[in-house]
Specification:
Number of helices of chain B: 6
Largest sheet of chain B: none
Structural class of chain A: mainly alpha
Order of helices and strands of chain B: HHHHHH
Distance between the termini of chain A: 27 Å
Radius of gyration of chain B: 20 Å
Oligomer: heterodimer
Structural class of chain B: mainly alpha
Radius of gyration of chain A: 18 Å
Largest sheet of chain A: none
Shape of chain B: globular
Number of helices of chain A: 10
Strand content of chain B: under 5%
Distance between the termini of chain B: 34 Å
Helix content of chain A: over 70%
Helix content of chain B: over 70%
Number of strands of chain A: 0
């Protein structure tokens, strides 16, 4: 129980820090927007072409954005020298990861949900018919990205060249998420939307595997 | 010690030579692909050896996190480097085989793509090691990344296999109707054995080097502190 209440308190702290400045969210959204606009020059974005290539570029934009957005996750604690305080405040370091994980998933989902309508309008695809399923895929995908990303940002924060290192470590690791979410999204943006449960199951498996790994090895990532 | 290593090296060299001889002169020529198919003994055996090396890296990483002994970190980095070398051989011999047989150098198929991603993961593992100065921290963080990367491999393979699939279906331990002609199988398993021996030799040599480097590093730090 204390794990959850600790994580809850820390999540509150993460959200408060972000919503005071909203720096991370605004920058990430503008970044996704820039990628979405630039991608339109790489192919002819008619409705049928967009259905084929759109989901992939959308997820690629989310992945790139996440690899930049997750950067300050542990770096901020390190530059402010608050990591030791965090570690002293909870008995189980997993609470720190749980809080950061929830915060990152929420931030990602929030930016994705704001960018999705823009993507739909610019690329001429309709997202409404299967919106509830889209929400599920966005949630599972974002959670996978945050799981791997939170763990790796704790690693990259302690290395040199960290700004380049995080995307480099994270993006190949997220290949399964990219493949599965893109395939499911292709189905959902189809003229007759259909749901690929296999993909949803796969995303859930990825999340479960990395959650277990983070639970087992998280404390070692924060050792000083 | 020196003569032991020389004998070991000589034995592995002889073994690799014998397996090369076996796959040119003992294994029969494949009916449709012809001579080029003989690259299979080298290609697939390297892939198996590379995967074994990465498994060694994974186990050594786990042991490091658990026991915190320098030797496990040295073993992990040695195995990762050797594994990367073998997988590089796989990625080079693959296109050489594919071009005459499939008519293309590369196709984004499940096993090719997942091997490439695997290669990228371990490349970034080695890169990560160069970017952390402090030895204990480098050992711990790279061990953790080694664990994440290894656990990610089945997921990468699963995802790509389900959704993006020219590579032949598994011949060894594949479904019914698959399988190798008996002589071919014998030669293949002999090649696998030879490649594993080569891999083990390289890991041992690389491990010795890493140990010397660590010792040197300790001495240098002491000297700087004086």
């Amino acid at each position: 129980m204390s794990l959850l209440s600790n994580a809850g308190a820390l999540l509150g702290k993460e959200l408060r820090t972000e919503f005071r400045s909203r720096e991370l969210l605004t920058t990430t959204m503008v970044f996704i927007l820039v990628i979405i606009v630039l991608f339109s020059f790489t192919f002819d974005p008619t409705s049928s072409e967009s259905r084929r290539f759109g989901p992939g570029l959308l997820w690629l934009a989310f992945l790139f954005a996440a690899s930049l957005m997750l950067q300050p996750c542990f770096l901020r604690e390190q530059t402010n020298d608050t990591l030791s305080a965090l570690r002293l405040s909870v008995d189980d370091p997993f609470a720190i990861f749980l809080a950061k994980l929830c915060a990152n998933t929420l931030f990602l989902l929030f930016t994705e949900l704001l960018m999705l309508p823009l993507f739909a309008v610019l690329y001429n695809v309709s997202i409404l018919p299967a919106f509830h399923w889209l929400l599920l895929v966005l949630f599972l995908g974002s959670m996978g990205v945050s799981l791997a990303g939170t763990a790796l940002s704790a690693i990259s924060a302690q290395a040199r060249m960290r700004e380049l290192l995080l995307p480099l470590l994270l993006l190949p690791l997220l290949t399964p998420i990219l493949v599965a979410s893109t395939e499911v999204t292709v189905g959902l943006l189809d003229r007759n939307p259909y749901m690929q449960w296999k993909g949803v199951g796969f995303l859930a498996t990825f999340d479960l595997v990395f959650l277990t790994v983070l639970w087992l090895f998280g404390e070692y990532l924060l050792e000083e | 010690m020196m003569w032991k290593r020389a004998i070991g090296g000589g034995a592995v060299l002889a073994l690799v030579g014998m397996s090369a001889w076996a796959n040119f002169f003992i294994a029969p020529t494949e009916r449709t692909m012809g001579l080029i198919q003989r690259i299979f003994y080298f290609h697939a055996a390297s892939a198996w050896a590379g995967m074994t090396a990465f498994s060694v890296c994974f186990v050594a990483s786990l042991l490091y996190v658990w026991r915190r002994l320098q030797k496990w970190d040295s073993l992990a980095v040695s195995a990762a480097e050797v594994g990367l070398a073998f997988i590089t051989v796989v990625l080079i011999t693959g296109p050489i085989w594919a071009h005459p047989v499939w008519g293309i150098w590369w196709t984004w198929d499940a096993r090719l793509t997942s091997t490439f991603v695997l290669w990228l993961l371990y490349l970034s593992y080695l890169l990560l090691r160069t970017l952390i100065e402090e030895p204990d921290r480098r050992a711990l963080l790279s061990a953790l990344f080694g664990i994440f990367a290894f656990l990610d491999v089945p997921l990468v393979f699963g995802a790509i296999r389900w959704w993006r699939t020219q590579h032949p279906a598994p011949v060894i331990m594949g479904g019914p109707g698959s399988g190798l002609e008996p002589t071919m199988r014998m030669v293949f398993f002999f090649s696998v054995f030879a490649m594993h021996a080569l891999m083990a030799l390289l890991i041992v040599e690389r491990y010795q080097l890493e140990k010397l480097r660590t010792e040197f590093d300790v001495v240098r730090r002491e000297a700087e502190a004086l």
